[in-house]
Design a protein that fits this description.
The structure is a homodimer of 344-residue chains. By secondary structure, chain A is of the alpha+beta class. In chain A, 29% of the residues lie in helices and 24% in strands. Chain A has two domains: 156 residues, 60s Ribosomal Protein L30, Chain: A; 166 residues, Alpha-Beta Complex (Phosphoribosyl-aminoimidazole Synthetase, Chain A, domain 2), CATH 3.90.650.10. Chains A, B: InterPro entries: HypE (IPR011854), PurM-like_C_dom (IPR010918), PurM-like_C_sf (IPR036676), PurM-like_N (IPR016188), PurM-like_N_sf (IPR036921).
């Protein structure tokens, strides 16, 4: 089916609403996401009432992906565009269900690259158990965008009675993470042509909804979750502390960091706390549920390095404090500038 | 509140997840869309179960907007990003409810321009009765995007029992449009610096959901609607005919085209049938309901030029046939190339 597309490139006509665009959609895009809700190819997907259960709330999120390069060890922009949005839904307690896909393509993009990215999106969607049910394609002239940008919006359903957020957090609650910090940031950095380092790190890009399901089942005292993406764990910890009106005390010795990432950080002068992740979450949990939570997380492939890394304190509201390996303390602030642009 | 932003420009730090991004979101973006579902500024909006009624289906759509220039007579990229997505939901029979806003900003974009575009989005959302409840902001380096791209995804609710689509279309059904063709296409074309024409045409960019509500109430026999955007009426008519398995016969003399648009088309060698619109819909309706439908549409400001422009025939399936003013007939095909890139 794809043979007549071999070696072809995206032209402005592929975004113009006419025959070329229709062929691109029906022959290349829709088959990658094949599912019954997408099939009518109307301007909107219709999600029948019977797909929703009484008492369920909806979660709704969006993210645009502009990562450069678009392919990196452990993933590509397509996988990222599905996992990132799935994770934004799941950390809110939602079961991710339906995604949209908005493509902005640069004139001249090889169709082969597009096919690979779409295949990756389709595979990630199947892995996460979501359907890409609606989409849009725009083409801009050469130089007006950088190869491909993808926006995915997502709808999830939140089971009745499941609430997460700052309301329930108490002093003594534990901060838990599901694995090593900074893999995505270092993998993308290493994939850039301007970095002459060979670093054996793969992005951690993965859909976290399966792990999060396990966590909600194991720990009724799960309070508040966020995924650690741009800005890393430091940013999420600061958001928790500031929005929740408490302080978070992190234990440096407990932070899981892969040796290769630690080495790269030392060479490059980077702090793994601020590095981007795409398959990591931070969760606050009642102290009495913490052990059960960690045990449950470790049964899941994406949680086998789960660790308790900090604790909620009532004093010094809004601050994140790191207790170093050597017993000292420092405040972990938000970054003012940017550590690495176009990381996701 | 905006004073310290005066004269500033977007930097890469505004997309990096740290303090600069948070300030941009809390001081510039969120206030433009102010509403309770957006207020928590979580990674996902939570839409409580009580916002949904039993038996309602959901409609879900997405569109990226890359129009150039970003400001044109009658609108801008922000207004377009709200109206376009509202219209995609409404033509499917849905009441548009919640929108997302994904911004891709080019480093160097003046903050004033961003503020103006966001204000325009907020105003359009209020006009359409929808809330922008979740969002995302990315910044790419200078030259990696063109000023600003916006993706909006939208969720609507479809009342129980409201079905549109090809299933119910019958020979003899009428094709109706709500007003003049091609205003958006000509307005954007005229706004481009490379066109040295002064053409007094404003984009028709508008939210059609209010008009469509009126139409569903007036005409139980309303069969199938689409908005005529990229590719114009010709494209929608072809989609109707091809997907529905019938032919559409258009009456050239009945097509509403503003004098200034007709004049510009003659000078530029363009066909108004293919020009983009952003506030126009084509609707198929049972013949017996047509008169009531047109009368109802004309009571609405966006339907005062409503007209019957064609008819469904059973023969010559898949074709769109135009009967000219002079009695001849020609087939109106899909365009192969593109008439004007980046029109929406």
């Amino acid at each position: 089916m794809h043979s007549r597309w071999l070696g072809k490139r995206i032209t402005l006509a592929h975004g113009a609403g006419g025959r070329a665009m229709r062929e691109l959609i029906t022959e290349i895009i829709a088959p990658a996401f094949d599912n019954p809700l997408l099939a009518p190819l109307e301007d909107q997907a219709r999600i029948p009432a019977e797909f929703l259960q009484a008492g369920e709330s909806l979660a709704f999120t969006t993210d645009s992906y502009v990562v450069s390069p678009i392919i990196f060890p452990g993933g590509d922009i397509g996988k990222l565009a599905v996992c990132g949005t799935v994770n934004d839904l799941a950390v809110g307690g939602a079961q991710p269900r339906w995604l949209s896909c908005g493509l902005i393509l640069e004139e001249g993009l090889p169709i082969d690259t597009l096919i690979a990215v779409l295949a990756s999106m389709g595979a990630a969607a199947r892995e996460a158990g979501v359907c890409i049910v609606t989409g849009d394609t725009k083409v801009v002239g050469r130089g007006a965008a950088d190869a491909i940008f993808i926006n995915t919006a997502g709808i999830g359903t939140i089971p009745r009675g499941r609430h997460t957020g700052p309301r329930n957090v108490r002093a003594g609650d534990k901060l838990v993470i599901n694995g090593t910090l900074g893999d995505h940031g270092i993998a993308v950095m290493a994939a850039r042509n301007d970095l002459a380092l060979q670093i054996p790190v793969r992005s951690d890009c993965a859909p976290l909804n399966g792990l999060i399901d396990v966590m909600f089942t194991a720990a009724p005292g799960l309070r508040w979750l966020r995924d650690c993406t741009r800005g890393g764990l430091a940013t999420v910890a600061n958001e928790f502390a500031e929005e929740g009106g408490f302080s978070l005390h992190l234990d440096e010795a407990a932070l899981p960091v892969a040796d290769a990432v630690r080495g790269a950080c030392e060479i490059l002068g980077l702090d793994p706390l601020y590095l981007a992740n795409e398959g990591k979450l931070a969760a606050l949990v009642a102290a009495e549920d913490c052990e059960a939570l960690i045990a449950a997380m470790r049964t899941h492939p994406l949680g086998c390095d789960a660790a308790v890394i900090g604790e909620v304190h009532a004093e010094r509201k809004g601050l994140v404090v790191l207790r170093s390996r050597f017993g000292g303390e420092r405040v972990v602030d938000l970054i003012d500038g940017e550590q690495l642009p176009r990381i996701c």
